[in-house]
Amino acid sequence: MDSRRLEQCGRWLADPRPWLGRVLASIAISKLRNNRSPDTARLLADVYSKHADPGVRKQAYAALCRFQEPRAIDAVCEVWLGNRRDRLAELLKRRGWVATAPPDLRTLTALKSKRFNPGLLNENGVIAALTRAAFDGDSEVSTGAVAALAGLVDPAQIEEFCDRLIRIDPGPLHKLARERGFKPRAPGRRALYLFLTGDRTGYEALDHDRSLLRACYEAADTGLRNRISTQIRNTGRADLMPVLHGNRQKRDLAGLLPREWETVVSVLRGNKRYQELWGLAFEVPPEWAAEILLTLQQAKFRPVSPSDAAVFDRLLKLCPVEGLRSRLYLPSPVCRNVLNTGDHAVRSLALSPDGRTLVSVSSDTTALLWELSGEVACSQISSRIGLALAAAFSPDGRFLAVAGTDNVARIWDLNTWRMSGLFRGHTDRISSLCFANDGTTLGTSSYDGTARLWNLENGECRRVLEGHEQSVLSLAFAPDGGRVATGSHDETVRVWSMSGGGCRSFSNGSFGSVCSLAFSDNGRTLASGSSEGTVQMWDLGGGGSRAVMAAHRGSVMALAFSPNGLRLASCSLDNTVAIWDTHSCRFRSRLNGHTDEVHALAFSPDGKSVVTGGRDHSIRIWEIAESKALINMNHDDLERIELRAAAASDAMEARPWHFAAALLRHRFRYDIELSELAERVFGEFEIEIEPV
Question: Sign of torsion, CA 479 480 481 487?
């Protein structure tokens, strides 16, 4: 039907005369009955929802029921959205009609027609549409939207939902998110989310120095800044006011922590501020530059300037594949969080395999479980274990082993909070314990001069390791499960075969008792810590001492290799923690902060953090994988990077270094002379670059 006839039918349908109008409307509907265009559907839907004559409405309804074309159904849905008439709503329900687009209309009609299904959550824009629909005036729509959001399980969908909550005022959705435990994954976005949703306790534990909120504020758009500033002023807290003034002060980007870089980049990415991301790629650490460039490529961004476009293309060709980050680390760890244990001196620490839960064991009979945000998760294990000395998580994270001075080891099921195993046999207090990687064996060492291997299924002792002449202070399983090492007051290290064979003995020489042990990730190297403050590296393939490393003035109480095996951490009674390079066996950096003896440490699963605890009643979380920002690099760094690229054994190893060199060369040419103080502006950032 052409537009002229369609317009004529529209006039007939709108004719207000009682008798003639009814006749003309009937004629118009009969002419429109066989036309399936969206415009026809709009006319008929409008007539069905508004016409006063029941007969005309009945004819319009019969004509509408003939429609099956998606575009025509979309037109009917649009009319319902515009007038929200009950008649059209009932039509949608009876016919099960759901619009195909746009997301808001599709979501609203799916909710109204009771046809919303979890598959729709995967479509672009639906989470945002559901968030808006939760405030719809139609109770059926709003109730359905809240129910759909409460059922979110996909991490990406939860992330998008939380991002939407950051931008809306407190209301029922905030309550729903708290009840369901929804939180953003990135620390910066999580801090902003907790702050804006009024979770003061959670925010304070995560962002005690306000650095994450400040980074979010600086990278935010005007609307989000207004929300942050309004919330700060509503709290009436003067200590939060510097957050609002941070953007007016020159920020030394070289001083930002990795988590602050992550916050800045994630916010700019989320707000599609791609031009600013392009500029920031020449300031951030190289691995962040790689992620920024990949993000820009996915967003189909391209610099306007021909010279910049050429550089962009070159960098993309050199960019390491996703997940392969260039390693340009600075030996300058930073303490990012301090957990106060009250009156509890920490004797041992254990980190769950997923890195989310930490257990601290204190000599006052208490074992506390913590979330790494800093909140005590639970403290059910207490007053039952004697003076606690050691703890360890099972490889699957389900079980926790705790032992101490009552000579007994206990296994707790963390799902039920019930004790699932009790291991008796030692005649003196247990000094250390750990699980084998296969999860079937628990090893314990004791001051009775023995170590024992326990069967976790039936609680029986599989084997007693006897041979040390004095107390056994430490025990560690090799990653492959084929060997177990023990260290003793008799100044020896013994490596036992799990298959029942003999053992190899290594003398610690004149370096004192062996207080701690740790296997490298490949099982070829064993590190031992002594009462004389030394760390010794043993080559288990060659059968001898590889190096003796000295950086402590007190007994080395705990050792831990990073997950990639590149670093070793040691803690001591001299109140310090040392980080070592495992390839060169050289001291790398010292973690100073504890005011008393440090007894325990653990690496995070990603290797970026070290958790330490001691007699000063504190647990400290250190960021040690700081990357060197391009802003802090000079021409000497460029020369070293290019030499590293030239010395690489293959193209894959050389690629990140070539990429970093290209970034730095472009920065020197495109940006500033490093001998001068200069200022660059990225949107609303003011950045001060330090002279070198």
Answer: negative
